[in-house]
Write a structure and sequence with these properties.
heterodimer; A: 243 residues; alpha/beta; Rossmann fold; 4 helices; 9 strands; globular; B: 498 residues; alpha+beta; DNA polymerase, domain 1; Dna Ligase, domain 1; 4 domains; 14 helices; elongated
Chain lengths: 243, 498
């Protein structure tokens, strides 16, 4: 392939991207989510808001880690003062823990439901509401059509949606923009101090629409994400599991 | 100008029984009760009246006229019960209905008749519907209750007495039409005053001296010089709108149109007064005489038609029109002052005061119930399960601060799960623990954080909490119940850290 062809291809790709993401909400990279090199995986190198993010969590430990990471992102999204809606079935999230990640628990409205159908209905209704910063739904499984519906809603309202898939039974394709998987990693303490350190996670980007996958090591340092150079501890094979 | 309709049911009890037992129709039958040791007739059917059997004759006399007469026991309070039921049914014609014992109804028809094409159509509709149901009845409309009452029972010319014509209408009626008691009636009869016209011109002082104050009062009430008040069956709430339908409504689009129309009327009134709806009830009066109703509630007082309609829209499916609904009544059962910023949709302050959010929550509450929606505020307790409490409303602010001295787990189990622990030294964190058949080697630990049970609330052991991190970096919240005891220490897993 000649360089000229290459140039045309990149230009076309760019145009295609712009057409698809009709109205990307751009946060200037400077005041982004502080995810460091992770943000390079996203289109335009910006964390995509106004779309649906999907978090896979197979066990309670991963669920807790995902919720911690999500809370860190929520804190940034809720900076405008808009509240968050947290839809769940059999919720175990302990609201006071959210403040450790910069989210005021009283700014979160919990909807506790029993049926999956109701969760989907509430999520769709909530995503239409522009007064919300972010909508989180705990839902183990979702099929393509359902996720497409949610994606269509947010494309209009530009509300960010998080789907926390607790112990999913099957991993089919969804219309979500990003698929994450967060796993806890051993924390580190400064020079042999006793106790437990700051929460540290292995953040896997399993799927990014118009972006690329990756695996990163992040720490929540009191009020921001701290990025660590990918160490040997992280198995690079994870990044190939894109769904 | 007030207009009253009085409906008279000459055979209320017998008609009612004939409706329930169709075989009694056209039969001679009576209700009786024991009066001073004699069996007296308290109600007679139309057929019995044709035979000359009237109320207040002895049953023995009636049997002499018609030997095959059927007799039923009268129940105390039955006619009141019946009248109340018919009265509530007739709320479709006017909001103010009162019962007039023993056999009448009073309707305040002021401003209602034009909906049925004038007073004639109004009366005809009422009588037609009652007669279809099987009641014999007569009705009259006049400026005063007294005149309407008299014309309904004794009138011969027209049941509609136009405004200020009470005097002329009463002239030819017998004095019984004035609702007088027996003693005065007898006295009038003795004096040969068989028509109201014969004494209506007499000086008031003469009438008072001979017949007492009551005659003057009743005359005044009939002519409209004395005010007469009625006690409505159902008190009309200040914020209520009614929509009578020309044809009974039974389809969803039509019901939705009716709701929109009512909401527009009600919200216009409310917004003029700076008020908004917190809860509202929609009642549908059905053709078959039953009532169907739905209720909505909001989180924030609102008078936005579009939003309130969406709330009702969720409930339309539960309205049963059956053969059709002929009257809708929308009542605001709770109103509150509305916040001014609500007028501008979506442009309110961001945060929990946002109108869009309140409307979303209303819709959710309408579908899934208010109890499913929760928001938490800090509570002044250290005990983890009690450290938060549900907020009562969206506006409620925290009274205390969230505690942030010690970290709390992201996921907390509603019921702590027992774990097996190896902890060699008292008050030191465990070396390892076994949870769900998996052994976790503790690499890092923090604690203990002792949390005492609040003895004034419940009895039990304190808890010593430890934050444990295992070899894979998974973080747990584990506690020991009570003091260290080599054999019998009980350990529990209570949560997972991020």
């Amino acid at each position: 392939m000649t360089t000229e062809k290459q140039k045309i291809l990149t230009r076309l790709k760019r145009q295609l991207l712009e057409a698809q993401e009709s109205n990307p909400t751009l946060i200037a990279p400077g005041d982004g989510f502080g995810l460091g090199p992770l943000e390079a995986c996203f289109p335009f190198k910006v964390f995509p808001t106004g779309t649906i993010h999907e978090f896979l969590a197979e066990n309670p430990e991963n669920i807790a880690a995902s919720e911690g990471f999500m809370a860190g992102l929520m804190a940034k999204l809720m900076e405008t003062g808009n509240p968050c809606l947290w839809i769940s079935r059999n919720r175990k999230l302990f609201p006071p823990a959210l403040q450790g990640f910069g989210v005021w628990p009283q700014q979160v409205i919990f909807i506790d439901l029993y049926r999956e159908k109701e969760i989907l209905w509430v999520m769709e209704e909530a995503l239409k509401c522009e007064g919300l910063a972010v909508v989180v739904a705990e839902l183990p499984d979702i099929d393509f059509a359902q996720s497409r519906r949610l994606q269509l809603v947010v494309e209009k309202s530009r509300v960010t949606g998080f789907l926390l898939r607790k112990e999913p039974k099957r991993l089919s394709a969804t219309a979500c923009t990003v698929r994450w998987s967060i796993k806890p990693q051993p924390s580190e303490l400064q020079s042999g101090l006793p106790g437990v350190g700051q929460p540290r996670w292995e953040v896997n980007l399993l799927k990014v629409r118009n972006g690329h996958t990756g695996s990163f090591l992040l720490e929540w340092a009191a009020d921001h994400f701290k990025f660590f150079e990918t160490t040997t501890a992280i198995d690079s094979a994870h990044s190939k599991q894109a769904g | 100008m007030k207009r009253y309709v009085v409906i008279w049911f000459p055979n209320l009890l017998t008609d009612w029984l004939a409706i329930r037992k169709p075989e009694l129709k056209e039969k001679v039958f009576v209700f009786t009760a024991n009066v001073r040791g004699r069996v007296m007739i308290t109600a007679a059917s139309k057929a019995a009246e044709m035979q000359g059997i009237f109320v207040d004759t002895a049953l023995a006399d009636a049997k002499a006229i018609v030997p095959e007469i059927q007799v039923f026991d009268d129940q105390i309070g039955l006619s009141q019960k019946l009248l109340t039921r018919i009265g509530k049914w007739s709320i479709r014609f006017t909001p103010i209905v009162a019962i007039d014992l023993p056999n009448g109804l009073i309707l305040d028809a002021s401003g209602c008749t034009h909906l049925w094409g004038g007073e004639k159509g109004y009366l005809q509709m009422i009588l037609q519907r009652l007669r279809e149901a099987g009641y014999h009845c007569r009705a009259a409309i006049a400026d005063t209750i007294g005149t309407a009452w008299a014309i309904a029972r004794y009138g011969t010319i027209s049941p509609i007495i136009s405004s200020n014509q009470q005097y002329n209408a009463m002239l030819n009626l017998p004095p019984t039409a004035l609702r007088l008691d027996n003693l005065i009636m007898q006295r009038l009869h003795k004096l040969g005053l068989t028509q109201i016209g014969k004494f209506i011109q007499m000086p008031r002082s003469v009438l008072r001296r001979r017949f007492g104050e009551e005659l003057l009062l009743r005359l005044g009430q009939a002519l409209g010089t004395v005010e007469e008040s009625i006690k409505p069956l159902v008190v009309v709430l200040p914020y209520e709108e009614r929509l009578p339908c020309l044809e009974p409504i039974r389809t969803k689009p039509a019901i939705e149109m009716a709701i929109t129309k009512l909401l527009e009327l009600l919200c216009l009134r409310l917004s003029n007064e700076g008020l908004g709806i917190r809860s509202a009830t929609l009642k549908g009066y059905r053709v078959d005489g039953r009532l169907t109703e739905v209720q909505i509630g909001t989180n924030q007082a609102t008078n936005q038609v579009a939003h309130l309609f969406k709330l009702f829209e969720l409930k339309v499916a539960t309205i049963e029109p059956a053969l059709g609904i002929e009257l809708f009544v929308l009542t605001a059962t709770k109103v509150e002052a509305v916040l001014v910023h609500q007028e501008k949709l979506w442009s309110g302050k961001p945060g929990l005061a946002d109108t869009g959010l309140a409307q979303l929550l209303d819709r959710l509450a309408g579908k899934i119930g208010q109890q499913a929606i929760r928001r938490y505020l800090p509570a002044a307790h250290y005990w983890p399960e009690r450290s938060l409490r549900p907020a009562l409303s969206l506006e409620e602010q925290a009274e205390t601060q969230w505690q942030n001295t010690n970290p709390r787990p992201m996921e907390m189990l509603s019921r702590p799960e027992p774990v097996q622990v190896t902890a060699p030294i008292p008050d030191y964190p465990p070396m390892n623990f076994r949870y769900k058949d998996e052994l976790h080697m503790v690499k890092k630990a923090d604690g203990p954080e002792r949390i005492e049970r609040e003895w004034w609330l419940e009895k039990g052991e304190h808890r010593d909490y430890y934050i444990l991190e295992d070899e894979k970096g998974r973080r747990y919240w584990v506690f020991r119940s009570g003091h260290y005891n080599e054999q019998k220490s009980e350990w529990f897993l209570h949560g997972f850290f991020a």
